[in-house]
Design a protein that fits this description.
- 47% of the residues lie in helices and 10% in strands.
- It is of the alpha+beta class.
- The strands form three sheets. Strands 1-2-8-5-3 form a five-stranded mixed β-sheet, with helices on one face. It has a three-stranded antiparallel β-sheet with strand order 4-10-9.
- InterPro entries: Cyt_P450, Cyt_P450_B, Cyt_P450_CS, Cyt_P450_sf.
């Protein structure tokens, strides 16, 4: 299966390799530690992600002026347990189920104008739009402010070393002010949205501090928007090369979830999960010292031949599909995974009920510049209406 994953300069070396030290690696928004151990084998990745006591998520120094340092994803237990419990309440299956009809309506609205033209730029016209609409509605962002928040998220999800630390910092600050104002409004006048639930939810008598609510909003937008956008685009890139699979899924919609799971194993949206060693330890043959940065590579773990036979091939009937690590593993398993699965399922149900898709160009899609995900800048498709 052809994918753009080879754009990673170290990927050939990383594939199924023992841990090695990469002097050029710098994690997202943290340049205080030069280099990191790259952990790539499935067994080692699972071991690191399972042992939060040895491999801490708090690799970014916490500061009062940067809400990202209070993010759920860079927080260890016991606070992590409290934050996740509150957020999980807000992401209840009932809330997600109530949104299914609305999500389907959005998918139809995004797709139908392009059917008559017979083409779509899938990233800009669909994959960017759907998750942003979903998260904005879920959080309760006013319609007039949705585009402003989208631009902030695009900046924050980019690589600060490429877009500029100043732009990154300003976007983060403006977004923090925006959510702070929205939290004040919801505190005074609660509504049926996620922000109101985050403000009022309690676990063991505790509520979130305002800065933690802001950090949660930013994290939900980053995860729910950027990761889902990438999942949609990456899965569509895979499906566009498999016309027989499209035809099968159109007639057997119950197989769409496992097809998406396999597509995201073949082309994983998440680049990796940085950790910092809390003590001296070993990962396979690598002697890792306390304070060393460790980056676990989901994309290479998902291609480990020891776990996934013929790993570059798309096979949605694999017996071990549930072992794919595309949404992470352990206590930091993606909080929004159930919502992402619903969005992507409904999206492909909608698309394949109306059309078959194929790549509009033989040119390899260009990867998006992001410190967080593997994604595509654009994906021009031909829509063959059925």
């Amino acid at each position: 299966m052809k994918t753009p994953l080879s754009q990673h300069p170290l990927h050939p070396r990383m594939q199924a390799a023992l841990p090695f030290f990469d002097t050029g690696f710098t994690p997202y928004y943290s340049d205080h530690i030069p280099g990191a151990w790259q952990v790539t084998r499935y067994e080692d990745v699972v071991a690191v992600l399972s042992d939060y006591a040895t491999f801490s998520s708090e690799y970014i120094p916490k500061t009062d002026d940067n809400v990202f340092t209070r993010n759920l994803n860079v927080t260890d237990p016991p606070k992590h347990k409290h934050l996740r419990a509150l957020a999980t309440k807000a992401f209840s299956p009932a809330i997600i189920a109530q949104s299914e009809g609305w999500i389907r309506q959005q998918c139809e609205e995004l797709l139908l104008p392009h059917l008559s033209a017979g083409s779509i730029e899938f990233v800009g016209d669909f994959a960017l739009q759907l998750p942003h609409r979903v998260i904005s509605r879920l959080l309760g962002v006013p319609d007039a402010e949705v585009e402003k928040v989208r631009q902030w998220i695009i900046a924050v999800a980019g690589d600060p070393r490429v877009i500029g630390v100043e732009i990154f910092g300003r976007s983060m600050q403006e977004m923090s002010i925006f959510f702070s104002d929205l939290i004040q409004k919801r505190t005074a006048h609660p509504q049926d949205d996620l922000i109101s639930q985050l403000i009022t939810s309690e676990v063991e008598g505790n509520r979130l501090e305002t800065m933690d609510v802001i950090a949660m909003c930013v994290a939900i937008f980053l995860g729910g928007y950027e990761t889902t956008k990438s999942s949609l685009a990456n899965a569509m890139y895979i499906f566009s090369q498999l016309p027989d699979i499209q035809a099968h899924l159109a007639g057997h919609t119950e197989d769409i979830p496992k097809a998406i799971t396999e597509a995201l194993r073949v082309l994983s949206p998440v680049k990796g999960f940085p950790r910092i060693a809390a003590k001296d330890t070993m990962v396979s043959s690598a002697a890792i010292k306390k304070g060393d940065l460790v980056n676990v590579s989901v994309s290479t773990a998902n291609k480990d031949e020891a776990v996934f036979a013929n790993p570059d091939a798309f096979d949605m009937d694999r017996s071990n599909l549930n072992q794919a690590l595309s949404f992470g593993h352990g206590i930091h398993y993606c909080l929004g995974a159930p919502l992402a699965r619903v969005e992507t399922r409904i999206a492909f149900e909608t698309i394949f009920s109306h059309a078959r898709v194929r790549l509009a160009s033989a040119v390899e899609p260009e990867p998006e510049i992001s410190a967080l995900v593997y994604s595509l800048k654009s994906l021009p498709l031909v829509l063959d209406k059925i």
